[in-house]
Amino acid sequence: MPGTWFGLETARRGMKLNQYALEITGHNLANASTTGYSRQEAVINPTDPFTNPSIDSSVTPGQFGTGVEVSSIRRVKDEYLDNNVRRSTTDSAYWDDQISVLQRAEASFAEPASDGIGERITSFFKAWMDLNNTPQDPGVKAAVAQAGDSLATLMTYTYNQLGDVQNSVAVIDSTPAVTGGMLKDQVDEANNLLVQIRDLTDSIKKVYAVGQQPNDLLDKRDQLLEELSKFGPLDVAFETVNGKPTGELTKLTLFGKDLSQTGTKLDLVTDGTKISLKVNGGTDNGAEVNLTDNCLDTNQGGSLLGLERARQDVIDYKEKLNDIAINMKSMIAGIGIDFFEGDLSTGDFKVNPGIIQNPASINGTLAGSVADLRDSQIDPADKPYTFEQYYSLLVTQVGGNAKGASDMADNQTAIKTQITALRDSVSGVSTDEELTKMIQFQYGFQASARVINVLDEMLDLLINGLVGR
C-alpha cells in the first residue's frame, strides 16, 4: 500500500508536467513568426506504477499510478517535406537570379526608342540614300559621317554596358581565378554556410550525446541547409544509431560532390572562357562542376547555374551586336569605301578618322550601292537577314529571355510557396492552437495544485485533528 505522502508526489508531478508544457507553449508562441522555427511539444508519459507485482506483494485493487512526466521535448518535423522545400528552393533560385541580370541587359538596349540603335541604323542608310540623290553635296556627306559616328558611338556604348552586366556576374582578369562578381560572392557565401553547418553539427552531436534534444539547434541547421540549397541541388542524409539520431550528417553533397568533410570548400576556376566550380578537400578532392557546360540544365537548377546561364546570354548579345558592326564595316568596304574601322570586341569600332575630319572625301558615286545594303542579307547562308531585321531579332531575344526568366521564376515561386505552406502546416506554430493548449495546461496546473490543497487538509485533520482528541 502506498505511503501517506504518495498522493502529494503524484500531484507534484502533475504540477511540474503542466509547468513544463506551459513553458514549451510559451516558447512556441514567442517564435510563431521566427523563420525556420519548428513547433515543439512535450512528450507526456505516465511514470512507472506502484508497485511491481511479486509473490510477497499485498493484495490491492491494482497497480497505483505514480503520476506523469515529460520524457522528451519533440520537434514536429517532416524530413520529406524539408527535402521538397530544398528542391523547390534550388529550382526557384535558378530563375530568380537570372532576372536582374537579364533585365539590366535589356535596359542597355533602350528599345523601342526614337534614338535607339534600330532607329540609328535606319537613319544611317537614309543618309546614304540622300547622298545618292546629291552625290557631291558636302552638307549631305557631312550628314552621312555624322549618322555613322552616332551609330558607332551608340553601338560601342551599348556593347560596353553589356560588358559591365557580364562582369557583374563574373570578373575574369586572368586564369584560373574568378576575381569578382555575383558568382564569386555566392560561392563565398556558400563556404560561409558550410562552416556554420559543420560548427552546428558538432554542437548538435554533443547535445545528443548527453541524451538531450537540440531542437533549436536543429532548426538553425535546417535553415542553413535550405539557404545552401539555393546555390545548387543539395542532398542531405542524417545518421541514426539503433533508430536514434546522433546529429551527424552522413551525406552532404552539392551537384553530387561531397561537402561533408571538414575543410572542404568551393572555388571558382576558369580557362578564360568557361567557369567551373571546384571542390577542394574531402573525398571529392579536386572534383569540378562545369557551370558553363551545364548552365542550360534546368533539371539541376540553382543560382550558380542560373547566373552562368544569364552571363552566357549576355555574351551572346554582345557577339550578335558585334556581328552587326563587323558585317556593316566589311560590306561597305567591299563596295569601295573604308567607312568604319575596328570592331566592338576590341573597343575601337568607329568611323574612319579621315572621313570625320574630311567628310567631303566620301565617294558619293557609290552612295547608292551603300544605300542598297539596307535591303541586303548579311549572309544568305548563315544570317539571311538585313541589318535592321537582325537587330530586331536581337532585341526580341533580349526581351524574350528576360520575360521568360521572370515567368518561370513566378511559376517556381508559386510552387515553392505551396510546398513551404504545406511544411508549415505540419511544423509551423498555430497561435490559436497554442493558446488553447495554454488554457489546458493552466487548468491542469490548477487542478494538480488543488489536489495538493485537499491532501494538505486531509493530513492536517489526520495529524492535528486526531491528536487533539
From TrEMBL:
Chief subcellular location: other
Alphabetical UniProt keywords: Bacterial flagellum, Cell projection, Cilium, Flagellum, Secreted
GO CC annotation, single: extracellular region
Keyword Secreted recorded: yes
Domain called Flagellar hook-associated protein FlgK helical: residue spans: 103-329
Single Gene Ontology MF annotation: structural molecule activity
InterPro entries: Flag_bb_rod_N, Flg_bb/hook_C_dom, FlgK, FlgK_helical
Compartments, record wording: Bacterial flagellum; Secreted
Sequence ranges assigned to domain Flagellar basal body rod protein N-terminal in this UniProt record: 8-37
Protein's UniProt keywords contain Lyase: no
One GO biological process term: bacterial-type flagellum assembly
Domain Flagellar basal-body/hook protein C-terminal positions: 426-464
Coiled-coil features, chain-numbered ranges: none
A Pfam family that the UniProt record links to this protein: Flg_bbr_C
Membership in a protein family: Belongs to the flagella basal body rod proteins family.
Descriptive protein name: Flagellar hook-associated protein 1
